[in-house]
From TrEMBL:
Coiled coil (UniProt feature): none
Alphabetical list of PANTHER family matching this protein: CYTOKINE RECEPTOR, INTERLEUKIN 5 RECEPTOR SUBUNIT ALPHA
Transmembrane segments: 342-362
Signal sequence annotation: 1-20
Quaternary structure annotation from Swiss-Prot or TrEMBL: Interacts with IL5. Interacts with CSF2RB. Interacts with JAK2. Interacts with SDCBP.
Ranges of residues in domain Type I cytokine receptor cytokine-binding: 131-236
Family: Belongs to the type I cytokine receptor family. Type 5 subfamily.
Designated name of the protein: Interleukin-5 receptor subunit alpha
Gene3D superfamilies, alphabetized: Immunoglobulins (2.60.40.10)
SUPFAM superfamilies: Fibronectin type III
Length: 423
């Protein structure tokens, strides 16, 4: 046991001595790097390079470098190598600093900073474009055996507020190591380029690199200031709507199915939204799904329109834009009315019919009175009638009636008149 204890003490002492030798000497003097340069290597891309200070005291320590981006946007990071690539906009200029550092468990030793700068490109204020927006879209590539899908690019912008009328703008994009100039422009009324269309690009729809876009210009009257911007693909990728959307109704059961959009992403990389709209009462149902099928219970006596849209899931890349809604599919029959509505319609129709019949009856009775008025009672002195008749007849002899029946019927009156006429 005593021997083992002595061995352990010896090993412990050796470990402490080794650790002490590995610790950096806090009295060491760190010198800043030399030959620090900033070089533009592409659209919105620079290369930072420097070298270790040749006068730096060499020890068994690992020196590192801290890089600080001062403009256009502050950032800092650490690296062990003597160069660094940086993707950033450059139309506002660029500046950075670097220093030597030595880290330990208890402290951080650092040299002074050395800096370099790129000045903003020349140009008159107000001449650069504004409101630059870009979108990408994926289509099937039937012309290439290397790639199944092709990405198009469309960008629009507004003319600078102080740009001369003869200003002409030109657009370039860079993705990875590929750079292209636009060949298809749209123009305003003065013939100035205000939009660009790339039907085929080198952009990878599943890629994660930044898309850099630069628009510069020329004019005979003024220097046009360039403008560049960086786009994340997930933020500008316009997803296609789902394909082959179908909807079927069985009673109150609505079954909807569809296929994934045209995209380089596989089927499990999509989220979906289903929209079901009742055209009769305006009820709107929206459901979020991760599958390409959906079943819902609906009112089978109403017509519905069904639409579906898609977005790439956050499982496969950062969340981006939703696609446009698919074309609406109409299911159901809006001609069928619920029993309650039919009952109300029948009641109202019956009431209207009864009122119409009563109105017609009243009108018919009034017309009958006009066509067949009641016969008035005969005058008490009927002698005047016969005298008048005799006067008009001329040769007809006068007849005296000593007595007229007080009571009788219309038939007796007719017989009396006939006897008078016969005489």
């Amino acid at each position: 046991m005593i021997i083992v204890a002595h061995v352990l003490l010896i090993l412990l002492g050796a470990t402490e001595i080794l650790q002490a030798d590995l610790l950096p000497d806090e009295k060491i003097s760190l010198l800043p790097p030399v030959n620090f340069t900033i070089k533009v290597t592409g659209l919105a891309q620079v290369l930072l390079q420097w070298k270790p200070n040749p006068d730096q005291e060499q020890r068994n320590v690992n020196l590192e470098y801290q890089v600080k981006i001062n403009a256009p946007k502050e950032d800092d990071y650490e690296t062990r190598i003597t160069e660094s690539k940086c993707v950033t906009i450059l139309h506002k200029g660029f500046s950075a600093s670097v220093r030597t550092i030595l880290q330990s468990d208890h402290s951080l030793l650092a040299s002074s900073w050395v800096s370099a700068e790129l000045h903003a490109p020349p140009g008159s204020p107000g001449t650069s474009i504004v409101n630059l927006t870009c979108t990408t879209n994926t289509t099937e590539d039937n012309y290439s055996r290397l790639r199944s899908y092709q990405v198009s690019l469309h960008c629009t912008w507004l003319v600078g507020t102080d740009a001369p009328e003869d200003t002409q703008y030109f657009l370039y994009y860079r993705y990875g190591s590929w750079t292209e100039e636009c060949q298809e422009y749209s123009k305003d009324t003065l013939g100035r380029n205000i939009a660009c269309w790339f039907p085929r690009t080198f952009i990878l729809s599943k890629g994660r690199d930044w898309l850099a876009v630069l628009v510069n210009g020329s004019s005979k009257h003024s220097a046009i200031k360039p403008f560049d911007q960086l786009f994340a693909l997930h933020a500008i990728d316009q997803i296609n709507p789902p394909l082959n959307v179908t909807a079927e109704i069985e009673g109150t059961r609505l079954s909807i199915q569809w296929e994934k959009p045209v995209s380089a992403f596989p089927i499990h990389c999509f989220d979906y939204e289903v929209k079901i709209h009742n055209t009769r009462n305006g009820y709107l149902q929206i459901e979020k799904l991760m599958t390409n099928a959906f079943i819902s219970i609906i009112d089978d006596l109403s017509k519905h329109d069904v639409q579906v849209r898609a977005a790439v899931s956050s499982m496969c890349r950062e969340a981006g834009l939703w696609s446009e809604w698919s074309q609406p599919i109409y299911v159901g029959n809006d001609e069928h009315k619920p029993l309650r509505e039919w009952f109300l319609i029948v009641i109202m129709a019956t009431i209207c019919f009864i009122l119409l019949i009563l109105s017609l009856i009243c009108k018919i009775c009034h017309l009958w009175i006009k066509l067949f008025p009641p016969i008035p009672a005969p005058k008490s002195n009927i002698k005047d009638l016969f005298v008048t008749t005799n006067y008009e007849a001329g040769a007809m002899p006068a007849v005296c009636i000593s007595e007229f029946p007080r009571r009788g019927t219309a038939a007796s009156v007719e017989r009396l008149v006939k006897n008078i006429l016969d005489e």
